[in-house]
Automatic annotation (TrEMBL), chain A:
CDD domains xref list: ABC_Carb_Monos_I (cd03216)
Pfam families: ABC_tran
The protein, known as: Sugar ABC transporter ATP-binding protein
ABC transporter domain span: 9-245
Automatic annotation (TrEMBL), chain B:
Cell compartment(s), UniProt: Cell membrane
Organism: Streptomyces hoynatensis
InterPro entries listed in its UniProt record: ABC_transp_permease
Name of protein: Xylose transport system permease protein XylH
Function of the molecule: Part of the binding-protein-dependent transport system for D-xylose. Probably responsible for the translocation of the substrate across the membrane.
Amino acid sequence: MTATAAPVLALSGVSKRFGAVQALTDVDLEIRPGEVTALVGDNGAGKSTLIKTIAGVHPIDSGTISWKGEVVRIAKPHDAQELGIATVYQDLALCDNLDVVANLFLGRELRRRSVLDQVQMERQALELLDTLSIRIPSVRIPVASLSGGQRQVVAIARALVGSPEVVILDEPTAALGVEQTAQVLDLVERLRERGLGVVLISHNIADVRAVADEVAVLRLGRNNGLFRVEDTSGEEIIAAITGAADNAVSRRRARKDGGEGNE
Amino acid sequence: MSEDLAPDPRLLVREKGLAGYWEDFKRRVRGGELGSIPVVLGVIVIAIVFQAQTGDFLTPRNLSNIMVYVAGPGIMAVGIVLVLLLGEIDLSVGSVAGLCAALWAVMSDQHGVNDILAIVLAVAGGAVVGTIHGFFFARIGVPAFVVTLAGFLGWSGLQIWVMGDKGTINIPRDSLVKDMYGYYFSDISAAYGLATVLTAGYLFALWRQERRRQQAGLTTRPLSEIVLRAVLVAAAAFVAAYELNQHRGLPLALVIFLAVLLLADFMLRRTTYGRQIYAVGGNAEAARRAGINVEFVRLTVFSMSSALAALGGLFTAAQAGGASKSLGSGNLLMNVIAAAVIGGTSLFGGRGWVWSALLGTLVIQSITTGLNLMGMSSEIQYMITGAVLLLAVVVDSVSRQTQRSAGRT
Ligand SMILES: Nc1ncnc2c1ncn2[C@@H]1O[C@H](COP(=O)(O)OP(=O)(O)OP(=O)(O)O)[C@@H](O)[C@H]1O
Ligand SMILES: [Mg+2]
């Protein structure tokens, strides 16, 4: 488990600005095959922005992204797809008017003699949803008529179509019940066992500690600590998230100053 | 797990038989997925009412004329359907139709360009015009409404300029454009042959699909449904063929319109590109994140819309007897957009199908023809068509709201 393989995806010095908002500043992140990297941080810390730069939704302003050791340019979502990066977005990014099958295969439709192969897509969709033990009323109804949790599950299943090498999940369990959350965490572990690199964004420290190997903390758009889960306590992670401390020294200083926290 | 054995009561499994269809229908009504059901009922009601009022609405001659008149606006409405599926609007189709008809007329009449070549160039000119719209909309980000409004004015100006000092240019006698209005395949085997081919093709496609689904272990339609669908399609096709043969035979206009419909339907439902159009109309950002080239889709849809407007313009010229400075102005634009919406394609993007172009133009043309038969003046026709359009939009908006509330998101 602790064997550190070479990272499949590595970000270094990534910065991203939206007008007046400096969303990311000099962020580093490494994703290794067969490992789950949790990305945590407060609301607005820049987690979603970071994974969107990887997914090609927002191209980076500066810094480098390397894939298997080679510097790559990810300018549009298609570039990330080509590399083998699949993303489940926080806002799900589903087309409400299309049915479940169409959403699952959107952008990667199966074709047969250059015509959409509806039969094959439906069959694979059923198999996929089956392996996730997901119940959906019908794979042929528009996604608009599914419940929030069902939609989230469809979005997760979408990331598994094709054979990605890196799967990014942005708060995948936010809308899920207890049982479905457990299933998604199981899925994350299965992906790790299959040797995929997984990035998991979550606000739930217990979930993070349960499945992650490594925890990267973002705070105000900057790296604020990188921990191996096995030798870190939940409190330490929370302290890094809230900025109460990134190490013992600053924690003492913070205590003396009565908290430099909010600027 | 044992629970996998018992079907989840919430799963949508259609019951066997007619009761199942009724349940399915009720579910769709509740969920706001009405599609083209209201307009099919509308066409039937309109036909019955006018027949009762005038006694000669359902004559072969009248029905045949409706079929011919429908072709031009119908082809243009196919373009509007594509644009509406993106959730956009194209206000320039009338002007583009007029401009391209003028281009064709000037090329073939004044400059002696070969007839077919002139037609191809006119339609290509339409595609260029649409690409310009698409560029400003997709690339620069100007709202399509404004771009095509500018086109609406600009292209009709260009049309007048192209026509020069000629008020109208009559169609050369031997032109194919004349045949777009006046040519009929008078041999009765033509109409029946086409009806047979369409029915057989439909049945074959359905059968092959069901066989593949069965082989793949997916749910299949019951035999009764396949038979019912085939009977309905065959009845529509053969009744139409019979009526057409009672008059002058199969009009060329209808053949071209059907070809456009079938091609567009194939593109939308069977190709990746068609799927992309729906995706962009449903959620453009999601489509972009799925790796779809949204800009390309938008650009090409607008160029198809204008190319189809150009083709429709030639039909309109054929009906009018020639190109003129004012061809395509008036209520052509509004009728075409109204047809697409009345036919069941949503104004809000992502929902609809090509056949609404046929259904909607049938409704509008039936109303016009019927009121003409009753001797009603055009003011009344405008008001009634306006009311029908409003009704269609109300149905669209209400079903969208129902769908939203059923969507629980
Ligand atoms: N498209 C955008 N345009 C402008 N500002 C943006 C955009 N996307 C994000 N931001 C800003 O970037 C910052 C980081 O946002 P981000 O969505 O990455 O936070 P997050 O860590 O995912 O938070 P949460 O836990 O709430 O999901 C915020 O200040 C946000 O306002
Ligand atoms: Mg976020």
